[in-house]
Amino acid sequence: MIDNSESGCLMHKYDERDVLFSRVSLKKGTKEYDEFYQKHPEYREIDDTLRGRNFRDALKGSSYFKEVYMPLLNQNKEYIKQVFFAGYDKEVASKRVPLGDDFVDQLKVITKYFGATDVGLAKLTDYEYYSHLGGLSEELGFETYGEKVLPKYKMAIVYTVEMDQEMINRAPHIEELLETERAYVKVAEVASKLTMYLKGLGYQAFGNNSEYYLGPMVPIAYDAGLGEIGMGNHLVTKEYGDRVRLGAVFTTLELPVDEPIDFGLEAFCKICGLCMINCPSHSITHKTRKVNGRTFYKFDDQTCYNMWLKGGTDCGTCIQSCPFSQGLDLTKVNRMKDNPVLMQELFDKHLKKYGRRNYIKKPLKIVALKEENDGRN
Ligand code: SF4
Ligand code: SF4
Questions:
Q1: DSSP letters of 142-184?
Q2: Is 160 exposed, middle or buried (0-12, 13-18, 19+ CB in 10 A)?
Q3: 274 lines ligand 2 (CB under 6 A)
Q4: 322 Cβ below 6 A of ligand 2
Q5: What is the domain partition of the chain in residue ranges?
Q6: CA–CA distance, 130 with 20 (Å, rounded to integer)
Q7: How far apart are CA 151 and CA 217, in angstroms?
Q8: Rounded to the nearest whole angstrom, what is the distance from the C-alpha of residue 29 to the centroid of ligand 1?
């Protein structure tokens, strides 16, 4: 992983060009490719083996592949594109509706009404934005590689969208990919509706979605108090673990923001480690690193992505493995901080019920296999 962020208390600017998806989309022989790997020669060799391959192609080679899957998957990006422009193109109302600080709670309810599972507000500083874009919004028709990101907005409305447990418990099979994409569509819908709403109130707004981010989502979701950062570097919520996708609308509207929460996840992860143990590519480690004051974990994005290329889905075994994703007793979770005995009790109960992970082999009807466990082990 490009880990130029291990800077102790130094502040780090995220750069989308460092993100693996941006790196592997670079084309050999281009100026962008040459410039990037001159700066980061250590990533060239492995990135080259991952370059130009679509992980969905591996699905086509699997024993249970059916042609009916591909439109089901491919239409999501097309739909997100349409939804994105509904918010992006809307004009800002010329007259602002005056809003008091007490609008916060109402705004959260409205965001849930649009389809979010949980909502929080976070302040945006320059460090929550990418310094430069990595060109990942190409599908939307933008040519943004290397474009500087201007920190135009001061606040983010950040939200989660829950992913279905039954689908995620089939990870790493196609149900997991379908559910991930369904959640990304919902994230995009909420982003667009909220963007339109804020513009209608007279405030500028930008709806981040899986096709266009102005900054990484996990740090601001943490700041907005939606959860803590777990060993897999995902946001882990108390109620749904990391079985959620994240979205955020950046806006010029300014309201009182939320604070990060601490329910004791860092200590719980030390007891648990299931995402690390179950990861088929050994990409997750227990070694912590501080980035802009937040605790993350060292992670190998190249081995993880290689696993996607082999399996044909975005795997999701780590998400399925998290005890919080399977549901823990919330009253006990709320009391577990600084209480290792209670944490151990929660973990032991989870292990007794599900073992190392709650993997369910039997396919769901949506993938309509003739033979129940065809191709699965
Ligand atoms: S998605 Fe799969 S391969 Fe990647 S970190 Fe999670 S468990 Fe490991
Ligand atoms: S699976 Fe365990 S170690 Fe990994 S994020 Fe969840 S609680 Fe932490």
A1: ---TTPBPP---SEEEEEEEEPPHHHHTTTTSHHHHHHHHHHH
A2: buried
A3: yes
A4: yes
A5: 54-365
A6: 14
A7: 15
A8: 31
Structure-token pair, residue 175: 């149900």
Under 8 Å between Cβ of 228 and 337? no
Tokens 């696993």: give the residue: 307
Give the closest ligand to the alpha carbon of residue 276.
2
pLDDT digits (tens, 9 = 90+) for 229-276: 999 999 999 999 999 999 999 999 999 999 999 999 999 999 999 999
Cα 233 to middle of ligand 1, angstroms: 11
Strands 235-236 vs 228-229: parallel, antiparallel or unpaired: antiparallel
CA atoms within 13 A on the CB side of 342: 15
Q: Are 119 and 150 in contact (CB under 8 A)?
A: no
Ligand 1 pocket list (CB less than 6 A): 232, 279-281, 283-284, 304, 307, 315-318
DSSP-derived letter for residue 16 is G
Is 346 touching ligand 2 by the criterion CB < 6 Å?
no
Query: Distance from the CA of 296 to the center of ligand 2, in angstroms?
Result: 12
Q: Going by CA atoms, what residue is nearest to atom 3 of ligand 1?
A: 304
Q: What is the pTM of this model?
A: 0.95
Task: Name beta bridge partners: 159.
Answer: 119, 247
How far is 300 from 164, CA to CA, in rounded Å? 27
Q: How far is Cα 205 from Cα 173, in angstroms, rounded to an integer? A: 36
Distance 273 CA to ligand 1 centre (A): 13
The Å distance, Cα 342 to ligand 2 centre, comes to 16
- State pLDDT tens for residues 182-215: 999 999 999 999 999 999 999 999 999 999 999 9
Q: For the chain, how big is the Rg over CA atoms in Å?
A: 21
Q: CA end-to-end span of the chain, whole Å?
A: 30
CA distance 161 to 226: 11
